[in-house]
Amino acid sequence: MNKFIIEKGLVLPLDRANVDTDFIIPKQFLKSIKRTGFGVNLFDEHRYLDKGEPDSDNSNRPLNPDFVLNQPRYQGARILLAQDNFGCGSSREHAPWALEDYGFRAIIAPSFADIFFNNCLKNGLLPIVLPKPIISGLFAEVEANAGYQLEVDLDLQLITKPGGETISFEVDEFRKHCLLNGLDDIGLTLEDADAISQFEAAWRNQAPWYFTAMK
Amino acid sequence: MSSKTLYDKIWDAHLVKQRADGTALIYIDRHLIHEVTSPQAFEGLRLAGRKPWRAEANFATPDHNIPTTREERSQGLEGIKDPVSKIQVATLDDNCREFGIFELKMTDERQGIVHVVGPEQGATLPGMTIVCGDSHTSTHGALGALAHGIGTSEVEHVLATQCLMQKKAKNMRVQVNGQLSPGVTAKDIVLAIIGKIGTAGGTGYTIEFAGEAIRSLSVEGRMTVCNMAIEAGARAGLIAVDETTLAYLKGRPFAPKGDLWEQAAESWRELTSDETAVFDSVVTLEAGEIEPQVTWGTSPEMVVAVGGRVPDPEQEPDMARRSSIQQALDYMGLVGGTAIKDIKLDCVFIGSCTNSRIEDLRAAAAVVKGKHVAESVELAMVVPGSGLVKKQAEEEGLDKIFIAAGLEWREPGCSMCLAMNADQLGAGKHCASTSNRNFEGRQGFGGRTHLVSPAMAAAAAIHGHFVDIREIS
Ligand code: SF4
């Protein structure tokens, strides 16, 4: 997993509530058995005017000029500003993979769907929850100022605006530690392998009916 | 001892380790696997040189992108025309072989949608922790199991460690009092709940569904309710164990037998929330007030009773809500104020892990029996949830009823619920669907989905537009 320490970048505003994971990466791209390369199909149904397929040559496809991602002023964006319940719907991890592969490093929204929120953290993508009035203010500032950038400092838990004004945010201590150090969850859990084995032995004794082998 | 909710009890029983920061390591009893969210997880194991912690706790079946026509299915893997889908299904077979994981292959009679097959095989048991790389894993909560949808990194994590790293959710109880009116079903209950609390209403909670109307449901109906807990934002839905649960499970292939069954059943009877347990949030509905539901927009919370109308954005004072209504209406090709019964349908889909069990097919067959699908409906299809559901339906002659009425009778799989295979809703077409998501493009690029119960979908197929099931039966 990539480390996340300080990220500064252009902000892209996606002013829409309940953006679901189908919106982020449509189902036909889930047929891939790989973990990378989803960035060109991020927001596919809104970004292009035709229907994308896993084997399409995306460079020749007609772009939807009205979709925010295609507007020249937002090219190279690294921070996504979004609305309520971002990432609802299917549990596909292809959604954070696509956002990350496109170049996003952080998402700021008033609320996120649970599974998506978790999936982001496991892929070095930082989801930040801020109160609604602050989000509305950010939308207005981004709209009004071309080239609007924010700096996100995970260690200090601070977002710095272009004028130097700061906004603090909450983050789970454990997740912060993992992101700052780029730690892999499995390695961490296996440090507790003995505790898992002990639990398992006791549980097998107490509830043997859960241990019928599937075969 | 302080009193506990059902969720608290299952959580506590599976707690391996609590970290100071609130995250916990939870032991997982059963892991269900399908072809779409697992290849990258198996690849991760291979790259790290890891083995499954307890291979026999896992169970796999392909469902999301397999074809559903008899012609394609009769040829096995070779019959999958889409080369990318074929690789994904073949990759699941290869991974299960390599890692020693039990798989009901596409050609096995017991194959089906993972959330239909798990309970059917008794792989889902009360009090278990269950995970699957699929958000509708909440379905299994109907049997009193704590079941979560997870992402692919977590699939790899569970394979490697038999544990899930999680923070405990809050407790919500949704209480549905009284009895449903005739013609109103489990699907209508859950759509009404989502209409009431919204698609984010359950975020951060585990929802326990309770009350007389829930207790009166069959296990199949309870699965329909828990299936859509995730559509209310909750990762897990739960229903307490009772005699209905035990009667459903007894004798299923992977359920305990003999003495072990007796011991298990005795411990499972305690899987209810203590009477004095405290919930962080309680929502109450009166079953008698619930009418057949139809979604009109692009989120399951955009739902009204069949006798109602599509909302008029002009009447909505909140600007953000007004624009989201307008966006949905534009996508759905609907005008505010339109009566639900005036919405014409091009397609009808009866299937998905929400409503593809035998009881759902019986309800749909009862409506179409002796009638015929309206001429304006281009495609009406019934996709059973598993090979065993299909077999049972055929033994009861339901397939003949559907075929005589002009509906297609397909092989089991997810099919047009998410349209990863060839079963796709055309752009601009309206579909009455028994599935769980009406998001833009969910059933096919540009397709327009209306979520309803099986009986309502069947009635819509016959009439070519929505009708109130209570007025025709
Ligand atoms: S039937 Fe639909 S919701 Fe259920 S597992 Fe398949 S794709 Fe997901």
Q: How would you describe this structure to a colleague?
A:
The complex is a heterodimer of chains A (215) and B (473). Chain A is an alpha/beta fold. Chain A folds into two domains: 6-183, Alpha-Beta Barrel (Aconitase, domain 4), CATH 3.20.19; 184-215. Chain A has helices spanning 21-24, 44-47, 94-102, 114-121, 132-144, 173-181, 185-190, 193-206, and strands at residues 6-13, 79-81, 106-109, 126-129, 149-153, 158-160, 166-168. Chain A has a seven-stranded mixed sheet. Chain A is globular, with a radius of gyration of 20 Å. The model of chain A has no long low-confidence stretch (mean pLDDT 94). Chain B has 473 residues and is of the alpha/beta class. Chain B contains 17 helices and 19 strands. Chain B has a five-stranded parallel sheet with strand order 5-4-3-6-7. In chain B, strands 17-16-15-18-19 form a five-stranded parallel sheet. Chain B has a four-stranded parallel sheet with strand order 11-10-9-12. The radius of gyration of chain B is 22 Å and the shape is globular. At the A-B interface, α4, α7 and α8 of A face β2, α2, α4, α6 and β8 of B. Iron/sulfur cluster binds at residues 63-64, 113, 115, 134, 136, 352-353, 414, 417-418, 435-436 of chain B.
Count all strands of chain B and give the number. 19
The arrangement of helices and strands of chain A along the chain is: EHHEHEHEHEEEHHH
Largest sheet of chain A: 7 strands, mixed
Q: Main interface pair?
A: A-B, 58 and 83 residues
Q: Round the Cα radius of gyration of chain A to an integer and report it.
A: 20 Å
Structural class of chain A: alpha/beta
Count of helix runs of chain A: 8
Query: What kind of sheet is the major sheet of chain B?
Result: 5 strands, parallel
